[in-house]
From TrEMBL:
It comes from the Bacteria. Keywords: Membrane, Transmembrane, Transmembrane helix. InterPro entries: DUF2306_membrane (IPR018750). The keyword Membrane applies. The lineage of its organism: Bacteria, Bacillati, Bacillota, Bacilli, Bacillales. It comes from Terribacillus halophilus. This is Predicted membrane protein. The chain crosses the membrane at residues 7-28, 48-68, 89-110, 116-137, 149-171, 183-203.
Amino acid sequence: MSLRFIYKLLLVFIGIYILFTLTDNYILDHQASFFLEQKINLRDSFRLPVWLDVMYVHVFVACLATLSGAVNFSRGLAWQKRKFHRINGYIYVVSVILVSLTSGYLAPYATGGKLVSVPFNMVNLFWPIITIVAIIHAKKGRLDKHWQWMIRSYVFCFTNMFIHLISSVLYQTGVDYTRSYTIGVYGSIIVNVAIAEAIILYLRSRKSS
Ligand code: HEM
């Protein structure tokens, strides 16, 4: 299978994922009711209207990061429309920073408490750092490294998807919601890192063969 074909398939999948996320959060369940019902022992400072507003911004910038990141992996665009690639790249960086900032507000109220807010905050710290490392490589003309670090950064756009995939499988098999969600958060970070390294290895092996 050619890389171009795999990329096109991924674009279709990502497009569907973004549409699903927007519909699910803004139309179908725009009060995040089931998710909120599972929260126990919430801090006194929790304010539902503020939480919901931050969550809506969080979802919007997350989808923007997912879309702008996906488009920027097009090698054709990166070579032929450099200005677009650069502007879209900055849209991605700003979106990543905004996802992390909004997540910084949401994390202290995370389902599962401190055990979950700590890994969330680690991602809040490392995701922007990884993204900035990728930009520095681009600025220094190290395009292979730029590509690799952008892959390491981009996989974090699927954090929420993997959290829900892992936690819903566990929840269906009888594990309680809080524990399923906690395992989902840790699991998603491991899966993100593993997928990024597997893609980088695969691309390296294709290049050398
Ligand atoms: C880029 C793709 C992402 C999307 C589409 C997304 C979407 C969402 C949504 C819909 C929620 C509400 C709860 C739920 O239904 O899960 C949420 C909560 C949250 N997200 Fe994200 N998110 C993304 C990435 C991230 C990343 C990278 C972080 C960084 C750590 C993060 C941190 C959080 C936190 C802390 C919460 C609150 C969890 C809780 O209350 O238990 N998200 N996100």
